[in-house]
Design brief:
- This protein is α/β, with parallel strands linked by helices.
- It has 2 domains: 2-180, Rossmann fold; 189-254, no CATH class.
- It has helices at 14-26, 52-55, 67-76, 93-100, 127-140, 161-180, 189-204, 210-219, 236-254, and strands at 2-7, 33-38, 79-85, 115-122, 144-152.
- Strands 2-1-3-4-5 form a 5-stranded parallel β-sheet, sandwiched between helices.
- The longest helix has 20 residues, at 161-180.
- The radius of gyration is 19 Å and the shape is globular.
Amino acid sequence: MKVLVIMGSPRKGNTYRAAERIREIMQEKVPVEWEYIVLRDLHLEQCRGCASCIVKGEEFCPIKDDVSAVTRKMHDADGVIFASPVYALQVTGLMKVFIDRHSYILHRPRFFGKKALILATAGAVGIHDVLKYLDSVVHMWGFEVAGKVGTLEEFIPGSRNLENDQKLRVAAEAFSAALMRESPPRPGFMDVLIFHGLRATFDELVETFPADYAYWTEKGWMGEKARYFVDVPVNPVYHAVGSIVEWYNRRQTWK
């Protein structure tokens, strides 16, 4: 199994040690090919907000740095760990820039079949917000989020060591199990609604979102028989509500 760690910390501290502990636990049962991408070491420029990647396609981004190489590595990995300490109640600036540079994937998801683990570390507060944010982003990118884990810093030696280790073990085992499972999960209610809502938007606003329309058409998602991004059973109630949402969105664009 190939696991890629996107490390959003600007230093080799608690977040790195937590990721290493996950690696150790996973390798107790199965060999893992492990690779770190440390964002601080990359040539990583901030998004300019030009929207070229969304409207024209990601290949039209005017910034030429290391982002596309990391994207390829995510495609090549079986699972990705997104790791960030909490800075001012959110992910680090490095991680936020990395996510901003992949904004187009929110329109054109592509990591279906890939598993993700979300890791956050903090001194006191903010873990819940960071885990929730990263979960939302990578899930919309197409990843199956197999687990989320947050650890707190030990201000008193040994005070949280056992608690943190137990949390990391649970997350590592859940991630390992997901990597070994081939069958994709069924979409939730909001997943189905998002699929139908986006399809209506890109189908009705082709001139505004030509790259999205072309991508969705190529994937077969514009077809009437498509119920979700991947061919899995969809709850019929979810599909019915999603179809209503799609019809409503189309009506709104006609006004």
